[in-house]
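Sanity check

After download, print the first record. It should look like this:
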Amino acid sequence: MLDRLEVPVIAAPMAGGASTPELVAAVGGAGGLGFLAAGYLSVEAVAGQVTATTALTDRPFGVNLFVPGPRSTADISGYRERVRALSPTEPGEPKWDDDAYAAKLELVMALRVPVVSFTFGLPNTEDVHRLHAAGSTVVVTVTTPQEAAQAAQIGADALCVQGSDAGGHRGTFADDGVSPGGGELFGVLAALRLVRARVDLPLIATGGLVHGADVAAVLTAGAVAAQLGTAFLAAPEAGTSAAHRKALAEGTRRTALTRAFSGRPARGLVNRFLVENQGNAPAAYPEVHHLTKPVRASGDPELMSMWAGQTYPLVRPAPAAEIVARLVAEARDAISVVNTRIPPG
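Expected structure tokens:
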């Protein structure tokens, strides 16, 4: 299915509110594929978003699930005090939960969601079979060739290959707790080529893609589609907060990988909270996520998590359908230029 999209552009699932039924429907209506993000939402909220999306479009769409990880044994008390000292808002309780994973999995099967993707790990083989029986295409997010091989073994239909230039959370299966990205980092083109050499599955490329030339580049490198998140954050259909939109438009902040906001490596705009806590946050997800949640909800751009890919200064606000059309036009132009540079065979 993914290699038969009218337009090989996918709107990435962006948990925390940026992904909306309106954004998904607009990208699908423009010939691409949109994803809802089930992460952090209640089962009822996910069901509502799926229902709203099907009311807005008859095009296929996807839902992304977070695979739960193990409970952390890290002592979080010291970090809680650091967070409390930085904000007038009282931190939350650093609890572990599984994001209602099993219930959300049952929901997407019951609703026969066309595409179901997984981040932070692998579904089990039995659940992949059940999703196939429900008619769903199964996609797994990977960041290394080793993860790609594991995903192929459990029967994934396609892989979303995430480069280190991507905004938001790294999709690594396990966080090593030491390196900034939780493990070895590959740019999107390097990751794509290494994964292509390891597995024979359709590949979606993601990470720092904001221009049609980027789409053309990953297609020629072996991807069947390009997945963009940051490029759609400024679209009116996205649920991006006003403070986040303003920071993206200003384009003056650098980006960095950090565990400060969630306990898991993620790339965002550098602010005071990130600087003060860089290197101090334990590798404890979702415990740290719950701890900082009230602080992040304050609306203060110096305390919020404002996820963004490395190329975010190039993003321009426009309706989602216009963004897709622009990407297609730019990709055609880029391919035309390449054709003039490569001698005929």
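If your output differs, re-run the checksum step. Summary of this record's structure: DSSP finds twelve helices and eleven strands in the chain.
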